[in-house]
Structure formats: structure tokens, C-alpha cells
Design goal:
The complex is a heterodimer of chains A (111) and B (115). Chain A is 0% helix and 55% strand. Chain A contains no helices and eleven strands. Chain A starts with a strand and ends with a strand. Chain B is globular. The model of chain B has no long low-confidence stretch (mean pLDDT 92). The N and C termini of chain B lie far apart (38 Å). Chain B has 115 residues and is mainly β. In chain B, strands 2, 4, 5, 6, 9, 10 and 11 form a seven-stranded mixed beta sheet that branches. The chains are: A mainly beta (111), B mainly beta (115). Chains A and B meet through strand 5 and strand 10 of A and strand 5 and strand 10 of B.
Chain lengths: 111, 115
Amino acid sequence: GENVEQHPSTLSVQEGDSAVIKCTYSDSASNYFPWYKQELGKRPQLIIDIRSNVGEKKDQRIAVTLNKTAKHFSLHITETQPEDSAVYFCASNSGNTPLVFGKGTRLSVIA
Amino acid sequence: SAVISQKPSRDICQRGTSLTIQCQVDSQVTMMFWYRQQPGQSLTLIATANQGSEATYESGFVIDKFPISRPNLTFSTLTVSNMSPEDSSIYLCSVEGLGVTVGYTFGSGTRLTVV
């Protein structure tokens, strides 16, 4: 089955700097790659996703890139703000298979 | 907008007892999933709840411990049976393609503590 590896497990950045979180996946049939943000005590919220037919997608300060050949995808957050502090999870699946999640990255943005 | 409601939001239970968690969606969805999130950990899929047939369980999870019902396309329950402290966790239901969201939407979660 699918295996998703996520790095780093923790990340601290200064406010205004960029943050990058990377994930690799094992199943070459995977074609959907979402990113979730989970604040303390809350449910995971979808922040951006990408499908395998595109290489990059942007939404304001957030972008996701996908390299299908290398089977890795990354989340980029620019101009980080304290409210970006949370745990971020990558995930992947194919077709109707359930999402498989990475282990998460705890992002701390230091004011 | 479409919503997904989960209850109870939290409970403290005695070991050896069972708890049933409910997940209600206000529109019909094909796929419903149950995840477990242990403290400080990621989300692990327990099972896929199939309407009209038995749930599909992931490795490490069995029907006797986590029986699931899916009587229609808007509702599912997960029971945590014969609980032990190791079952203390957050349990989340999830559906795919709800409202304007293409990906998975999660319920608010049930924080279970077994004492």
C-alpha cells in the first residue's frame, strides 16, 4: 500500500520568512495530493491540494509543487505569520482509495 | 454550505465499556472514513464505511473491536468496544467531496479518554 514520508517533523521560522515542508510517496498510481493544517484542538482543514496532471498550484501565500518522476511534493508558505503556526499534514491517494497521511510537521513562526 | 457533524465531542469512559460515535452529513456522500489520531500523532485510517455492506478495515483494526454501521448515505457510527487506556485518542470521521470542497472534510472529532 501507499507510504507517505514527511520532513521535517518540526520547523521553526522567523516571521516573514518562508517555510518548506516535503513529502515523498511510494505508490506511482497516486494522483491526488492534499495538504491539511491542524491547529491545536481542532480538526484538520484542507489548505491546498494538487492533482497529478499539474506541477504547481498557488493560492496567495501557499503553493504546492509536485514531481511525479521523483514521487515527491512540497508545501511552500511565503511571508509566514504567527497564525501559520500549526501542524501540517501531507497526504495522497489514487482514485477511490482512502487518503494516507504523512506524520506531520509542527511549524512554529516566531514573531 | 454542507456540514459534517460528529458527536460526542469528548467523553471519559471506564475501561471495559464501549462508546459509539456518530457522524452525520447533511448531504449524501459515497465514501465515509473513520480515522484515529493518537496524541501528537498523525491520522491513521481505521476503516472505510460502506453503505449497505460491511466496512473495510485496515491492517491492525478488526470489526470486533471497532464495529461500524453505515445505514444510509448520510450517517455512520463507529463503536470502540471493550475499551482500554490505549484506546484514548481522537476519533474523526471524514467524507470526500463535500460541498465545494474537492478533498476530504473532517468531522470535529471525538476526544476519548479511557480510565
